[in-house]
Amino acid sequence: MNIDTRIRRRQDDAGLVRDEATISPVSHIADPVGRGPTFEALLDYLDPVLDGALPPDAYVWGPAGAGKSAVVTALFAHLRPRRSRRGSIVHTATRPRAARERSQSFVYVDARAATTDFARYHAILDGVVDESVPTQGVRTDALLDRLRDTLCRSSRRAVVAVDHVGESETCSLSALEAALAPLDGALAWVAIGRDRPTDLDGDPPATRFEVPAYETRTLADVVTTRAMAGLDARALTHQQCRDLAAWADGDAHDALAALFAAADRASERGRARVEDDDIAHACEATPRHAVPLSQVLTLAPNRQRVLRELLDVRPADRSSVEETAAAIAAGVDLSAGTVRRYLYELADDGIVERVRTDGSTSGRPPSRVEPRFPTSVFRRLYEAETQG
């Protein structure tokens, strides 16, 4: 950002929040901060693509909020436009002709949204071909056959990144490997997950990339970059950015969720800057190691509605799961029994927590339900999505 741009931003009176999406914890930016070595390692890994070959399958792993998704989505977004209409991502006179004429596709699949083999095959095929891919009236094996024909019987090849593997509602690494085995030689897959390779079921790929948690200084740079792009230039001090990073303890999702909540609170109060009490309130309201909001927002619509109604249930009506379910059912077109089942399933998946009234977290009833995600940020993002 040059000096003239900085001056214009200070002169422009557009309010505290300039670009809400930029500070959102569910958004990724084109050039993630502080992950240069990871980018270089992945580019080295993808180097065979330049010769028309496929790299080996790989596994990218690290803790929640380490920037794994941000790096891979940014990298694939940059690589996709570099494909020519006829061939590989880069053409040089020294590359073999066969390599130059072989088409390479880079496809990103979110396992949270693609929860079945059919959905995963559909997402891959949709990323490879130009025409629309039907979502109904076709069997899974027929979709696999079409994908196999598209890749194996042509010069096309694909590198497929499958994100969020091994979570409570997503496929395991071994299940992904089995689903993509019929396409061996036609595509290479990059699984992205949190588990250490030694904790995975089956035999993980030999090619592995660890993405460690952010150091506090680097995470402060992440927060500063997002704040500079999405807020008024004077909205946040460098010390506040460092404080957010130190509190988040290496988790970029939690840091950005607290940033979003603090800015939203300050904006609602008509402030020109984020105050320290906004930061403190946001940190207190954000659970440590919170469930990523991108995970919550990919839940089925009825489950999201139940979570949204949960936020408005009075404390007096939350002494047990049954009472909470009845209170939620009064505001949605679902039965109390269905809501109760959803709450138990959401608790099993870690989205909410059942807390016994005696203070322990073991056993079932009687227990109240507590969200494990940043509630104020979810409220804003949910309402923005449902209200257009």
Describe the structure.
Residues 32-181 form the Orc1-like AAA ATPase domain. InterPro entries: AAA_16 (IPR041664), P-loop_NTPase (IPR027417), WH-like_DNA-bd_sf (IPR036388), WH_DNA-bd_sf (IPR036390). This protein is an alpha/beta fold and 388 residues long. It folds into 3 domains: 3-27 and 214-285, Helicase, Ruva Protein, domain 3; 36-210, Rossmann fold; 293-372, Orthogonal Bundle (Arc Repressor Mutant, subunit A), CATH 1.10.10. The protein contains 16 helices and 7 strands. The chain has helices spanning 3-11, 36-45, 68-79, 97-101, 117-128, 140-152, 173-180, 216-230, 238-248, 252-268, 276-285, 293-296, 301-310, 321-329, 336-348, 375-386; strands spanning 58-61, 104-110, 157-165, 187-193, 207-210, 352-356, 367-371. A 5-stranded parallel β-sheet has the order 2-3-4-1-5, sandwiched between helices. The protein has a two-stranded antiparallel sheet with strand order 6-7. Helix 7 (173-180) links the parallel strand 3 and strand 4 (187-193). Helix 9 packs across helix 10 (252-268) and helix 14 crosses helix 15. The longest helix is centred in the last third of the chain and has 17 residues, at 252-268. The protein is globular. The two termini are 32 Å apart. The model is unreliable at 5-11 and 83-102 (pLDDT under 50).
**Strands, total number:** 7
How many domains? The number is 3
User: How much of the sequence is in beta strands?
Assistant: 5-15%
CATH A-level architecture of the largest domain: 3-Layer(aba) Sandwich
- What's the shape? globular
What is the succession of H and E elements? HHEHHEHHEHEEHHHHHHHHEEH
Helix content: 40-55%
Q: Strand sequence of the main sheet, in spatial order?
A: 2-3-4-1-5
What is the highest CATH level, the class of the largest domain? Alpha Beta
Number of helices: 16
* Cα-to-Cα separation, first versus last residue: 32 Å
Question: Kindly state the mean pLDDT as a whole number?
Answer: 87
Sheet with most strands = 5 strands, parallel
Pfam families: AAA_16
InterPro entries: AAA_16 (IPR041664), P-loop_NTPase (IPR027417), WH-like_DNA-bd_sf (IPR036388), WH_DNA-bd_sf (IPR036390)
Organism: Haloarcula onubensis
Protein name: AAA family ATPase
